[in-house]
Specification:
- The structure is a single chain.
- This protein has three helices and five strands.
- The chain is of the alpha/beta class and 87 residues long.
- The chain has a single domain, classed as Alpha-Beta Complex (Conserved hypothetical protein from pyrococcus furiosus pfu- 392566-001, ParB domain), CATH 3.90.1530.
- Helix 1 crosses helix 2.
- It is globular.
């Protein structure tokens, strides 16, 4: 089951390092500041903890804008699914 909800940025673990495109982040910051976040990021919820694997540019844009939460599409998953995403 997938649900869309606001999640505090500081509760999302980002286990894989990402190299973000600075121009894309800046463009997203301008868009989010003007019209809000339009597309949720994708997170897995495993044992009550959130793990983000997509939406890294939106995540950074919201962080840099000083937002405390981000709109996320949350999917509950098992530890084995989490391990597959980290491989």
């Amino acid at each position: 089951m997938v649900r869309v909800q606001e999640i505090p940025l500081n509760q999302i673990n980002r286990p894989l390092p990402r190299q973000n495109d600075a121009h894309k982040v800046q463009t997203l910051m301008e868009s989010i500041a003007a019209i809000g976040q339009q597309e949720p990021i994708e997170v897995l919820e495993v044992d009550g903890r959130y793990y983000g694997f997509s939406g890294c540019h939106r995540y950074e844009a919201c962080q840099r804008l000083g937002q405390f939460t981000i709109l996320a599409r949350v999917r509950r998953a098992t530890r084995s699914v989490l391990k597959m995403h980290m491989a």
